[in-house]
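[step 3/7] fold_predict: job queued, chain A
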Amino acid sequence: MTESDTVLTALADGVLTLTLNRPDKLNSFNEEMHLALRAGFERARDDAAVRAVLLTGAGRGFCAGQDLGDRDPRKGGPAPDLGHTIETFYNPTLRLIRALEKPVVCAVNGVAAGAGANIAFACDIVLAAQSARFIQAFSKIGLVPDAGGSWSLTRILGEPRAKALALTAAPLPAETAADWGLIWRAVPDADLMAEAGALAASLAAGPTLGLGLTKRLIQAAATNSLDAQLDLERDCQQQAGSSADYAEGVTAFLEKRKPAFKGN
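[step 4/7] structure written:
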């Protein structure tokens, strides 16, 4: 596991908080931060004590995408292999987030640009400060959306809005993003971390096996036929119904008390 101060980690009450921590660079990605964030999600995958993840950024922005300081063409040399960068750094982390059968909450505390925006969209529930902006900045430097952006924008918003955002790089205010269904909610800036923390803690205290199966089902629905989805619902419900969490949930309901879920 990579240890680095570019991503701060804290585990409390089942919530692993991952804070992108290059505030002087608007938390833009360098290789060290890439590896540290991946290590954080690998920990979330492998550590049973982690029942939910909260991802956010330090300082005045969430993430400005890739740090371009190391890509200055004025320094000369061969053109960078950005396909290698994507395959080596971005794609493994995106796949981890989507495959993690634990809830991932993202608190966007300021600008989320380029890959920073698209990593947020890969999370399960996104809250954003009302002052936050989402920007598909790629077209401004001659690139295409990456970090899953062309996938998530098109599926969530449809082709017309996805194309307009990607081609123009127009900033999308948090409240508009919420109105369009791109994120869950826009909240007052001062309330963002309290609301996101409470949400993550609530999910961590929930029946996380069932929540993980729910995440799997919803993500599969975009490409499954109805028949395939019905079969997957059957299989997931069979697994959930045999869990200790289901037994606890029903018992707590009948006894009119709060359930104590364990995630199994």
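[step 5/7] annotate
Residues 7-204 form a domain with the 2-enoyl-CoA Hydratase; Chain A, domain 1 fold (CATH 3.90.226.10).
The first strand starts at residue 7 and ends at 12.
exit 0
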